[in-house]
Each structure stands twice: as structure tokens, then as C-alpha cells.
Design brief:
Elements lengths: L2 E2 L5 E3 L11 E6 L4 E3 L4 E4 L2 E8 L5 E3 L3 E3 L1 E2 L11 E4 L2 E5 L10 E5 L9 E3 L4 E6 L3 E9 L2 E2 L3 E8 L3 E3 L3 E2 L13 E3 L3 E8 L5 E5 L9 E2 L2 E2 L3 E10 L5 E10 L2
Parallel strand pairs: 1-9, 10-17, 19-26
Antiparallel strand pairs: 2-5, 3-4, 3-6, 6-7, 6-8, 11-14, 12-13, 12-15, 15-16, 15-17, 18-20, 21-22, 21-25, 23-24, 25-26
Length: about 250
């Protein structure tokens, strides 16, 4: 079978050699380097190969030449979510469809660009400062194989948008299990607090990504209404104050 995209998937199978027991085998590539010592050859790149078999008496016989071809195919296009960030801040491009294949991901400013801005093996890129709405183009490469273009759309905003839900359900089903505040743009949190109906604080954080999971000291809280306050600064040091209620469901 042939190799695909240089993944070393080529093989030579289905051979038989007569000569009794204790046969020894050696496979050679075109440069004369030994690349295998079994009757079957596998995990090879494209190229020319032959096998030499030696019986118990030292008699040798060579096979004919076998050619493993390089098969070129189109790789899956990289997928990225659209995002909105504060103007002139960093954008993190996170690959949504990682592959188990040994791919190289290349980031370009345009589809016509010859030189990649960055390249790596995980498809994760950080753009240090994005000053305007931008589209970045990414392709996956392996040997002679490439993907279609993937796009990463980054929009910039001059304000911070805070979206706070009114309910969550920490029941372990993987859907809406945490009280999450969605922020578009830049934010610096002074305090994010959750209170019970007796105005006792049951959760506090200064990290917007530290979500409230409906427990206190590891114990699940009862279904009901709870209250929150958010004290933060947004883009251009604009004050953000939010307070309200959140319903805990099961």
C-alpha cells in the first residue's frame, strides 16, 4: 500500500518465500539502508524498496523492486470560532478541530501571502495586538498535502459588553452547570460575589473565568434564588457595576 501525505503509512505485504525454517529477512531502501527485518514491510515513506532473504545455510535471494507511492489528498480545513476583543489587545486563535495526524498549521495574513506569519503543530496562535476587524487564514500541511483555507475572524470593540444569565442548573448534565458571566472585550474584576437570601456571601472571585458551580465547601446548595454583585473596570477604564438575582435550578 502507498504512503499518504508523508505519514509513513506505506507497506509491502502479501509476499511468500520458500526455503524452510529459520529464514532471515532484510529490507533495503534505495540508499541501501536496512529499514526492516520481517517478511512484511510497513510504516515506510514513499520510495523504492527490495528484500533480501537468507536461509539457514546462508543462501541469499533478492526480491524484485517494490515502489511505494506518495498519495496526495486534501486535509480537513482548520476551524476557528469568530471572536470579539477589545481594540489593540491580543487575540487567541484556538483550533476547534484538532487532528491526531502530525500536521503543521500555518497562519497567513491573506490567502495570497507567500510567507506565513506563524506556524506550529497545535494550531493555537496568539496575535499580540489587533487594532481593527481582521480575518486570518490558516491551512494545515503534511508533506505534499494541504488543506483548504480555514478562517479566524476577529472583531474589535471599543467597549466592554457583559452578559449575565438569570438561571443555571448544576445537575452534572454538562449543560449550563455553572453561573458563567460572558464578557466581550477587556475587563478587570475587582470583585464578583454571590449571596444567599440571608445576604451571606457564599462565593467570591476576582477572576471572571472562575465560575460559581452552585456549591459551598463542596456541598450542593438548595434550589432557589441567589444574588450577585460585579464590580469591575472595562475598556478605557470604564466602571462596570452589576447586581441582580440568579435562580439555581436542578
Amino acid at each position: 500500500s502507498d504512503d499518504t501525505c508523508g505519514f509513513t503509512t506505506g507497506s509491502v505485504r502479501g509476499l511468500s518465500v520458500s526455503g524452510g525454517a529459520n529464514m532471515q529477512y532484510e529490507w533495503f531502501n534505495a540508499a541501501g539502508v536496512i529499514v526492516g527485518n520481517k517478511l512484511l514491510l510497513d510504516k515506510q515513506k514513499s520510495g523504492e524498496y527490495f528484500m533480501e532473504a537468507t536461509d539457514a545455510g546462508g543462501c541469499k535471494v533478492n526480491s524484485g523492486q517494490f515502489t511505494i507511492k506518495d498519495v496526495v489528498r486534501t486535509l480537513p480545513a482548520p476551524v476557528y470560532n469568530e471572536q470579539t476583543i477589545a481594540r489593540s489587545t491580543a487575540a487567541s486563535l484556538i483550533l476547534r478541530n484538532p487532528s491526531n495526524l502530525p500536521l503543521i498549521y500555518e497562519l497567513y495574513e491573506t490567502q495570497q501571502a507567500v510567507q506565513a506569519l506563524m506556524s506550529n503543530k497545535n494550531g493555537l496562535f496568539t496575535i499580540p495586538s489587533v487594532g481593527q476587524n481582521s480575518i486570518y487564514y490558516i491551512k494545515a500541511v503534511a508533506g505534499n498535502c494541504t488543506s483548504n483555507w480555514g478562517q479566524a475572524i476577529v472583531k474589535v470593540s471599543d467597549e466592554t459588553i457583559v452578559e449575565i444569565p438569570n438561571a443555571f442548573s448544576p445537575n452534572g448534565d454538562g449543560v449550563n452547570d455553572e453561573f458563567r458571566i460572558k464578557v466581550t472585550g477587556l475587563i478587570f474584576v475587582k470583585s464578583f460575589r454571590v449571596y444567599n437570601r440571608y445576604v451571606q456571601m457564599i462565593f467570591e472571585s476576582r477572576a471572571i473565568n472562575n465560575h460559581f458551580n452552585g456549591t459551598i465547601n463542596g456541598r450542593p446548595l438548595l434550589v432557589g434564588t441567589y444574588y450577585y454583585t460585579l464590580d469591575a473596570f472595562g475598556a478605557f477604564n470604564k466602571k462596570i457595576l452589576r447586581q441582580g438575582s440568579i435562580t439555581l435550578l436542578k
